[in-house]
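Backbone shape codes
____________________
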Amino acid sequence: MDRVVRRRLGFGGTLLATLFACASLTPSLLPRTWLYQGVMGAVTGIMGYAVGAAFGALGRGLIPYRLPERGRRIAWRVMLAGCAGLVAVTLWYSHDWQRDLRALMGMDARITWFPPVILAVTVVLFTAALLVCRLVRLAGRKLIAWFDRFVPPYVGHAAGVLIVGFLVAVFANDVLFGAFVARVSDVSSVANEGTHPGVRRPTSANVSGGPGSLVSWESLGREGRRFTGTAATPAGLAAFSGRPAAEPIRVYIGLDSTTSPRAQAELAVRELERTGAFARPVLAVLGTTGTGWVDPRIADTLEYMYNGRSAMVALQYSYLPSWVSFLVDRDRAAAAGRALFEAVRERWARLPAGSRPRLLLSGESLGSYELEESFRDLDDLVSRADGAVFVGPPNANRIWHRLTTGRERGSPVWRPVYRSGRTARFAQRPGDLRRPPEPWPRPRVVYLQNASDPVVWWSPQLIYRRPPWLEGARGPGVNPEMNWFPLVTFWQVLVDMTAALDVPPGHGHRYGANIVDGWAAVAAPPGWTPRDTWRLRRLISGL
């Protein structure tokens, strides 16, 4: 046991663990706290140790030569001195890097940063992780030794490695991750039964859960109740427009309403018919995040633009947090989006061509993925819908990925130009939608994506490939000191996702009033002016 658990650190593992931990101190997309940095240093350090130890073992197997004892001592001393100096330098500069990143985003640059505590947290967590890894290795050696008593050594070694690897994978996936998802599911299901403070059952028959609704208020879920219970009021709409306003239509089908996405979609269409949604000038199919959340700016903007003469529909496919749903419920999200859009469009297509409402799409984050999966490509989307606004699309969105990889030469991936912007355009700031200057016929598709949004840029490919958004000029709000490191950047951006909403609008995963400009570009009603957009931006920002 001592030879495995208490053995000295390896040369290659120590070197790469230090390099990886130091790389994690460099800037990423978003600011982070000193505690997050300590955890990040430990995780990236253990990754580096594994890589270094693997290369060391491979080198020893291929190269029989060994340095004499004196040479090894000198190499260790030189390496440890260099690592200590590198750790000191990066810890010193890390404070300035984080402060500069906060200033770049308009945040308070006065931060609490404890380099000695960061180092202590990193070392303690790294040691604990290394101990666990060595205990697993010890178990593997014991198993191989037992196999060697009955079978040839090469068979025993192969069997032992495969069995230990299988058990570790099962434990990590089915026990640790499975238990985590089950616990989150239990907590989320309880939360789904609650209601946000200040949200009351609507008195309007034009929204789900109200009088005459085909679905009960209780079945909508926590986010569904907020969606239908916070529709804009005619008084508020009239105050903005200066004209009498209509009552908006909001239809929502919760998970508890029926048994399957197809049944939910059919129920949604019946609810749209009940409320008279197909007689409105505009009908929007909205994608939801994991919990069933719809960004209120997406819904409110459309209602204020059309003075209440709008209808929108959404359904819930999960009550897990969005990032958990992205891992375990993506297929369900896609199935729900496809079922809802197809059901709505089939009913919409039965109307006379001259009396159909404009059929629009919108979704944020996983909600954009949910709806994108209803179409083969961009041409299919604009041939079957009258426009779309997608906000903060995940890197897994297939259509988004095709547009960004097929962008015109010279346009950056964080602000790509696809087919001269004739159909789809990408924006972080309102002025981005006016570029390129070529004509922009309808139907239009807008992607709102911040250059510092980790939801947009996180991908497993960050493990081994430098991303195009870190090549050439950095996008607005991205620290020019940020660089790509194998494995490290993958982990940095993944951790950034947990803080994606803790930054000002226009950075991270916060899009604020820019959603107004997206809708104005895609679906402005007749007579809508740039001044109206400016006024609505102010109102939505206040809400």
